[in-house]
């Protein structure tokens, strides 16, 4: 399976909203909300790749606090450069992963398009018809709000470091800061996180009165924070103090000199929601999302605050790195300089 | 601009409907209808390519008699193998063509996704929320109905023959039956037809009580007729007697031995609607669509009948070829064997 991830320059969106377009309909106050995304495989497991692609598409709806999706279309290309036998094994697995994730999101895939292309492509379209109370426009942050992030950062670093296990030149640059096992664990953790739906978080946005949100993908946490800040109606700006990062990925990013993970510019795939919440609600949000009633693996961190400002976003000079331990980890890694082994933090 | 067209095996559609999926909504009897298509450039003019891609996406809605579209998303890849200068000239033209055609269809493009890929990709998603009377399910053909086709066949032959002007080996096979000028005219005519919206035809489906319809694309007229026949509630079958074909394309198809145009298996891009109409309405449909109130270039032909049968479709042994003259043609081409120079026909 070719492993290739390109950052996707997002197409200009003219509708209301940032992550999805919102179109007022001719029928009784309803709005059409939809979004599309497609990209290239970045993990080796085709089933997980299907799940990730679906989670990534739905994430744009979830970023608006939408928890239902009326329909999904799948966009797929099978690779002409892949032997037919391999293609016939891999394609159904990708499709199954996509469909399973859609089902987990309470929706179904009822159409799409498949073509032949040099690279494998997987993606989709998510569409819902909403009443006004079903979505939260991402424009109402106020001074004093707190920023919460619902997945750890570092997915691109994890995916690349995993590829470098087979590339001695690249591996030599990072082997002083990380073991092969830690790379493997980080990769598994990244894959698991990318395949996790942001649906629980979307539902809790309503419970805890979120004022705005976006999801973290190709522009990294800083880029998406800046985009979100620009949308605000009030004169606010976002300041990020804490970076929850999959364990060891900050060290790899520094040693390789490639990603800018600590600067917030490392791309993420199917990342978490960044949510502006009233200060008193933020800790309750973080505690609620971990509750066992929502199943395993949901977590959230307070990462910053909303100040008065001119609709920009920044990361402080020496942000606190919160090393998020992979689920599979049995040994606590040595805490690297400038980080903390805590898995949660508050300001 | 790389010229490449692959037939796109359609993804299994689980919703009601054939060309679009139809999803009942939670809100007051409304349905969500949507469709997606993407492919690779097949004409050299990027602006026209954008128009064709948009017309092709919308065609799946039009095939259900839907004339409105609430929203379009654009799917695009820019080619990594193209020099940046060329890319920056071509991409905005494709986007403009797509947007202009959307506007002509009374809708707008409000989102999408752009990626980098070895090949250029262009396509989109069309979505509408409908009341039940806005669409016509393609399942109610009755014995005695007549089949009407709203664009001439032969687009793939025209596109390929045009490429062969620069390929001596291929050109030698067809130069006995066609002149360079005729190939040029046929290509222009094909491009014009592919870029024409089926919207007028979709509106007239309601006026003249259409019983079923589909649009002709990758499977050729025979393949799509068979698909449509399979959907019917009554025990009917479709028999095609006439093939309206862009002038000279039948001769090229025969001489090259490649397309199966006369067998109905030559792929079309953004082809016409094939509509089952009550016999007494069919001629009126064909006459109305040519009316000057709908602008230039709309035409339709009666191509077959609906008989009692087991939900199959076939083309008769020696179908009548209706040579459709390109708009730019000034001289009547010699009528080839087994064809007629008439531009319209009835049974």
TrEMBL record, chains A, B:
Residues 19-125 form the PurM-like N-terminal domain. It comes from Moschus moschiferus. Transmembrane segments: none annotated. SUPFAM superfamilies: PurM C-terminal domain-like, PurM N-terminal domain-like. This is selenide, water dikinase. GO terms for biological process: selenium compound metabolic process; selenocysteine biosynthetic process. Its EC number is 2.7.9.3. The keyword Amino-acid biosynthesis does not apply. One of its GO terms (molecular function) is metal ion binding.
